[in-house]
Amino acid sequence: MSGSVSVFVSSTDTHSERKFDQHTTVAQLKARLEHITGIPITSQKLVLCRTEDGQQICELDDDARPLGFYSPADWMTLQVVDLNPAGPAGMYSDVSQVQKFELSDEEYAKRQESLLKFKQANRFGRFADPAQETPAPAPAPSYPDIVVGARCQVESEEEGLQKRGTVRFVGSTQFGKGVGLWVGVEYDEPFGKNDGSVQGHRYFTCPANHGAFVRPERVTVGDFPPISLMDDDEEM
Hints:
This is CAP-Gly domain-containing protein. Residues 5-87 form the Ubiquitin-like domain. This protein is an alpha+beta fold. It has helices spanning 26-37, 105-110, 115-122; strands at 4-10, 15-21, 44-49, 56-59, 76-82, 151-154, 163-171, 182-187, 197-198, 201-202, 211-214, 219-221. It has 2 domains: 4-92, Phosphatidylinositol 3-kinase Catalytic Subunit, Chain A, domain 1 (Ubiquitin-like (UB roll), Roll), CATH 3.10.20.90; 151-229, CAP Gly-rich-like domain (SH3 type barrels, Roll), CATH 2.30.30.190. The protein is built from 3 helices and 12 strands.
């Protein structure tokens, strides 16, 4: 028996690494452990355990013997058991003995500095002005009259140009994702940009440069007959 030993000191409320001289008697050790664990000397039971599985090796039951008598090894655990858990040390971990602070709703409402007063002053939560609440988003517009096969006229940016055709597709597409509905139109004349396919994906079939995809708000469904070349003649 010589030198010192490093062990883990463990109790109900503490766990730490400590180094002790092996010549220290158990009585002297308990005096030091009282300052570490808060457990009075008279309430301590010391048990040497294997750290890896908690198996008890021996009890340090003789106050007169030195610590080295029990052959402690580095990094073993010295378990300090409180024989009187209702005593001064145990009272600090027993929350049932703590008097709770309670405040009635009426008393809380009278306080000037509280979360309740802050919410009232800033109109948060249930104190918000209904008129200032964020309105629900408007539902997306629907176009029940735009159906495949319907005749239509498409709004044109060129004044006097009438783009008429037939609805060939209504729905979402692989291009322009996240923008909602697209209408595929087969024009009567070559006003389009495709043949019903875009980026290698076919949505409908029509002659080249007769197909186009437009937003539904630009489409008007109705009795739109094809425009004849003769309709532009002023004289017969």
